[in-house]
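In keeping with the milestone schedule agreed at the kick-off meeting, the structural modelling team has produced records for the first pair of proteins. Each record is given below as a sequence line and a structure-token line. The laboratory manager (R.T.) confirmed that both were archived under the project's standard naming scheme.
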Amino acid sequence: MEKIPSISIVVPVYNVERYLKRAIKSVLYQTFADWEMILVDDGSPDRCGEICESYAKQDKRIRVIHQANGGLSAARNTGMSHCAGDYLFFLDSDDYLAGNALEFLWEKARQGSFDIVMAGHRRVEPDGSTPLQSSGWLESEDLHQIRKRILLNELPNFAWGKLYRRDLWEDIRFPVGQLVEDMYVVARVFYKARSAYVCKAPLYYYSHENAGSIMNAPGLRNYIRIRYGRFIGWREHEKLASSFDPACRDVCAAQAMKAAVRAYALDTEKMALTESERDHIREYIAGHRNLHLPKRIRLIAGLIAGGHDGALDLLGRLQRRLVMHQLIRRQEKLIKQQAR
């Protein structure tokens, strides 16, 4: 009988030929060896599929799944359905791990009987710098406080960088076609866990090297979709708060409202949201009129609820110009960083 690996690593792969080998090698060179890596080639148009297959031929712990492009959520869901390990770890294919990451996470999980161990991370910039992003975290195993900080997004809701007992995910999957998908599911996983540990040691390296891609043709559309995704994520957090931490409900609802209003106002030309999604936002606004919100958000929410399309069109044009200006400035900054 084939031995069950301790850790299953799910790696969704799409259009990252430049970074993929770095991600795979960071697993191969781990000080902890009892893992399986599932590379999900999500219909990548470049040589990623070939690269995945070449590494699978070299190491029997690596498996490759090829599928038609369905997006990050679909690729992760496919990977999870093929996992056999006791624990689950997500690694994005342009990111990489510190050499002792899996050993540290595994030892901490086993020694403390933790269902989730969350490690800190560094962000890899286009100029090669790696600023620490977790320096302000408090190391803790207080499950109530950890859940609350995840619920309020004071601890990042990224799926990656965390070692999970795999059975926590048995009835949870990422929402296909939705951006900010991590926020939709990670808090639910933490509320299923019976124990957790957070450390700020930077064991994960999150790539910000290709962040300028938002400036391609669908950049503004993606920007709006991200705002809608945040609305959906915060709405899920509001539901969790209603069940487990009512004192946080209005905080989550206010964040959901801000994201919803932002997405709707930016999409007055209907380039990003479906009519069903626009209806969803209108229904949410109608059901949350008593929230304490900043005056500007209340004003825009009132325009949406009242069907004042003319005023919204003008506001949307102004906001889109401002966003595009911000994106252009961001792109210029990234180009300067890459040129150094």
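The second protein of the pair:
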Amino acid sequence: MLNKILKIIALLVLSVYALVAAKNVLIPLFIAILIWFIIYEITTNIQSIKIGKYRFPRWLAYLFSTIIIATAGYFILNAMIHNLREINELAPKYQQNLRNFETWAKNTYDLDLEMISAGWLKEMDIQALVGSLLNQLSGLISNSFMIVLYILFIIIESEYFTPKLKQSIPKKSALLNTVEVLNNIKKSMGNYIILKTGVSLITGVCSYIILLIIGVDLAFFWALLIFLLNYIPSVGSLIATVFPSLVALFQFGSLQPFLIVLFAIGTLQVVVGNFIEPKVFGDKLNINGFVVILALSVWGAIWGIAGMVLSVPIVLVTIAIFDQFPQTKGISVFLKS
């Protein structure tokens, strides 16, 4: 029994080591697979459109889907880089407003914000922070070529996958089980992508309206960031609330706009996270909340932000696979809500 436990621990350690060591290869691959699922869903919806007796051929639907995703990806990256550069230009003004706010808090309420923040505010360099984010985006762009290459190969191979699967699994029962697993993965991923994108879009649009009314700089950029951050379970909504609130503090150098943005965006996130998302998702995803947090922590520790974004899709795939085999079905029961 002890030997078995030690073997399992050794296997887990080796697996984590392999995932960390190969992250430069695996992260672009996993992102490419996730994007392919999005392309696949769009392709399926395009093919369902019927104009008279005419339906779009699969290759044309794939082409349209790929163009849509490529355009959206280019637009998002371009908007983020452009707006981060604008923030970099506004950084000196924000830095000065922050210092003015610290002085006001000290004179008015005798609050030493530097002491309260354990020196965090004093050491904060907005330009350095923005520069770091720009460098990370540059790294993402450098990986984009590999992601695009993976996507192209996946699209090409997906057309020949079924015949190859039939050849590689001659036993009919095993083939049917494999096909069922793959169909369950497609269904789970499709539901997740469509529903999560829809909910995130609603959150982003509402956030944009709120930030525009308050007069926060670069409202569209922060709304776009909120839309993207909502793909990260739990933590994403928290970060999406704090970021624009801090920007309101830096921009106005006053507590009131900070509290208004914090309350408005925070309330929106609570409503979406606790009422709209559960209502929209219903039983379609069927993941245990604790498992989501655990997966978020584990994959975040292994692969950083990319791991956080991919954590729920990885759990969905795991459940679909474990559900199909008697030996692992018990584990899938615990993974579900």
